[in-house]
Amino acid sequence: MGQNSQEVAYGFGQLGSMFVDTNTTITPPVGKCIIAISMITDVTFDNDPLGLVPQTKENVDGTVTGDEYGKDITTTQGLEYFGTTAAHNLTADNETAISGAGGVAVDDSNTFPTGLTIYGRWISVTPKTGTIVAYLGE
Q1: Tell me, what DSSP letter sits at residue 8?
Q2: pLDDT digits over 2-22, tens only?
Q3: 1 falls within a domain
Q4: Does 27 score more than 60 pLDDT?
Q5: E strands in the chain
Q6: Structural domain includes residue 20
Q7: Domain-located, residue 116
Q8: pTM of structure
Q9: Is residue 17 part of a domain?
Q10: What range defines the domain where residue 50 resides?
Q11: How far is the CA of 69 from the CAs of 16, 41, 73, 117, in angstroms?
């Protein structure tokens, strides 16, 4: 038997999408984030801090924000998402209960191939080359 759950729907991209085929920064509406990115063609992301910006904070009420507001979900919950800043990037043998080791940042030498979909939580995305569809969630 299926379950009709708005919580599941909102977490899996059913709150809209954005199409980008230029070197343009996209940001989701207030209170939402980009939860998946499908590569329509081979894609690289800008090296600058706006290339693939992961969510690191949330407001007390749970809404998505940038780095400047809300509780830190990386240190309090261990929720680290890859992007143009490294996630789970502690040195080997220094892992903790909430952060791993060995993660590196995405840069423009990394090509994401056509047909690939990546999942995470990003608050800003700037493809350097290629075409993407970004899916929104809460």
Answers
A1: H
A2: 566 665 555 555 789 999 999
A3: no
A4: yes
A5: 17-20, 33-39, 44-45, 52-54, 57-58, 64-65, 71-72, 117-125, 127-129, 132-137
A6: yes
A7: yes
A8: 0.78
A9: yes
A10: 6-137
A11: 24, 35, 11, 29
